[in-house]
Write a structure and sequence with these properties.
Length: 148
């Protein structure tokens, strides 16, 4: 029993040291999933998802708000009936980690929201899978966008 307590104590100490060493404001918590994206549509968005033969289905939205040191939020929308596999991912230069929402949804994936984006560029990607064949896979990827 003493070994287990010693091991647990060591793990707790290592975890505390790692948390203390992380730079302030760079926690993975800067990315979150929200149901409603705040702000205005970024210029050039929404973007359409394309498959291998350039057919289109669904869109990717990117919104910007000046709140919380600037905020970016991305969503993928499916304009076909029924539930489909979809995902939206966002990374921001200079902010560690990424945010992603994926699964089988009826209307949209996301929004993936990140705060503190002032002076940084976003990279956004989205996918929509309508079936098992490659022609049923639609995607869009862009970045750097929304820099500033």
């Amino acid at each position: 029993m003493r070994r287990i307590l010693t091991l647990a104590s060591a793990v707790a100490l290592i975890g505390t040291a790692v948390l203390a060493a992380a730079p302030a404001g760079q926690a993975a918590g800067r990315y979150s999933i929200v149901s409603t994206c705040p702000g205005s549509m970024v210029s050039g968005f929404p973007k359409t998802l394309h498959n291998a033969v350039d057919e289109t289905q669904g869109t990717v939205e990117l919104r910007y708000s000046s709140a919380n040191g600037s905020t970016n939020c991305a969503k993928v929308y499916d304009n076909a009936s029924g539930k489909h596999a979809m995902s939206v991912t966002m990374t921001v230069d200079g902010i560690p980690g990424s945010g992603q929402d994926s699964g089988t949804f009826e209307t949209y994936a996301g929004g993936v929201l990140v705060t503190g984006t002032n002076g940084h560029c976003a990279h956004v990607s989205g996918t929509l899978v309508m079936g098992t064949h490659s022609i049923d896979h639609f995607s869009f990827s862009s970045g750097p966008v929304a820099c500033g």
